[in-house]
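Go through the following before class.
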Amino acid sequence: MKNRALVTGSLLVGAAIAAGVYVWSGDAINAAPPAQTQARKVLFWYDPMYPNTRFDKPGKSPFMDMDLVAKYADEAPEAAGAPGVRIDPTLTQNLGVRVEVVRRGPLSWSQTFPASVGYNEYQYAIVQARAAGFVEKVWPLTVGDRVKKGAPLIDLTIPDWVEPQGEYLLLRESGGDTAQLEGILERLRLAGMPEEAIRRLKSTRRLQTRFTLRAPVDGAITAFDLRAGMNIAKDNVVAKIQGMNPIWIGVAVPESVAWMVDNPSQFTLSVPARPDGRFAVANWRVLPGVDAVTRTVQLRLAVDNADEALKPGMTAWLRVQANSEPMPLIPSSALIDTGREQRVITVDGEGRFVPKRVSVFRESGGITALRDGLKEGEKVVTNGLFLIDSEASISGALERMRASTAGLADAAGHPHKGASQ
C-alpha cells in the first residue's frame, strides 16, 4: 500500500510540474516581441539592359545571360513622397556608380584652326608710266624678287613730257614769274613725271628725256612683264609690289566661338616650315560678315616678319585659347544627350537619384559648362549612368520630370519641347 501511494504521489507531482512548465513556456512565447523585419514587397523583376520589359517572377533574363533584378515597393519614389529613385546600395557599388560635385568657374576652351599666310594688302603698290613712251632699259628683276623702296625698275623715254619742259626752260630764261613756272612743273607732276626728274630739270636747266621708274614701297614683285625695246601705253602696269612685313595671317573660326576672341594673348601661331619660330602678333581684327556656307568668321592677324621667315602661301596653324564667364561645370561623362534633350542624374540629400534637364554651353577637355539646370554644390552621377537612367525610366521619374518642366513652362507662358522617347 505504501509503495502504491508513493508511486501515485510521484505521478501527481510530475503532472503538476509539467503543467507549470507548460503554462510558463506558453506565457514566454506569447510575450516574445514580433519579428523585427518583414519580407520586402517585390513589384516585379527586370533586366537592367532591357528595363522596359517586366517579369512577374525571378529567373534568368531571356535577353542577356544574367539574373533578373527585383524592383521593390519601398524603392518607388511614391512610397517616400519624393521625386527620384532609390537603388540597392550593393548594386550601385558593384556597378561602380561614381558621383561628382558641381563646381562653378570659367571653362577653359582651346582649339587649333588651319591658317594661311598672305601678303600685306596695306602695302600694295601698282607702278604705271602714266604716259606713252618707249622702254629703254629693264633692270634685272622678275616676279618674286624682293625690292626696297626707291629701287630702279625700268628706264623710259616719254616724248609727251618734253614740250612742257621746253616751256618751263623758255619762261625761266625770259624772266617769267614764279606762279607761271610752278604751274608748268605741277602740270608735269600730274602727267606722271617723277619728282626726281623734276628736281634734275630745275637744277641742270636741261631737257630730261630719260626717266627711271622706281619701287614706291618695300616688298616682293608680284607682276612684272616688260622688256627693253617695248612701247608702253600710259595705262600699262609696269609692276605690282606687295609688302611682307608685317605679313598677314588669315584664319576662319566658327561664328559660335568668334565672340570669345578678344585678346591677342589668346593666339599661338605655329608654322610647319619653321617649327622653331616664335611669331609675335602685331595687331589683329575680326572681319565683318559671316560666310553663309561654312558659318565662319574671318580673323586677320598682322605678324612681324622682318626676317621674312614667313612666306605668302605657307601653311600655318593658329591655336586659340579662351575662358568663358563663370558658370556651372560638370564632367562631360555626367551628361546624357538623347538628341532631343540633355539631362544629368543628380543625387539629393536623402540619396535619391533624380534626373534633371540641363542646357549645355560648351564642352572642352572633358569638362562641360552649363547655361542652366544645375547649381554649384549639387551632386551628379558620372559613372553607372545606364543603371540609374534605366531605374529612372522604370519608376517613371523621367516622365514626371518632363511633366514638371512642361507645367512650369506653361505657367510662365513659354512653349516647351516635347519629351524624348
Remarks:
- Residues 126-242 form a domain with the OB fold (Dihydrolipoamide Acetyltransferase, E2P) fold (CATH 2.40.50.100).
- The first helix runs from residue 2 to 31.
